[in-house]
Amino acid sequence: MLPVLTFVAGVAAGALGVRMLKKSKTPAKLTALAHKARSGFDKAGEELRDVTVSGLSAVEKSSANLRAKLAGQTETSVDQTDAAPANDEPDADPAAHESAKHEEA
Questions:
Q1: If we measure between CA atoms, which residue out of 69, 91, 72 comes closest to residue 80?
Q2: Angle at 69 between CA 52 and CA 67, to 5 degrees
């Protein structure tokens, strides 16, 4: 029973407050306050948008640099694996060369 009584008292106080606001001149003040708050929110939204764009640009630039760096490392590693060691003396016996490879492994 007590929660119902609290609820009814809250509804009555809210209705009384709304009637008092309608009769007084505070709605004009509230409207001005609402416009001020809205302009503040708009300004904050624009600043947040600008910061987000600059942050995304930094991420884009950073990822492009990392991509170029990784692509450069990949190319150099591919170049190193493709390049066979140059021997000044050609092997006379290819079978001996193959057996030497298997012994190293």
A1: 72
A2: 45
Max CA pair span of the chain? 111
The sign of the CA dihedral 52, 58, 64, 66 is negative
Domain ranges of the chain: 27-70
CA distance 59 to 53: 10
pTM of the full structure: 0.41
Chain centroid to CA 4: 48
pLDDT in tens, the chain (105 residues): 678 889 999 999 999 988 887 777 666 777 888 889 999 999 999 999 999 999 999 999 999 999 999 888 776 666 666 655 555 555 555 555 555 555 554
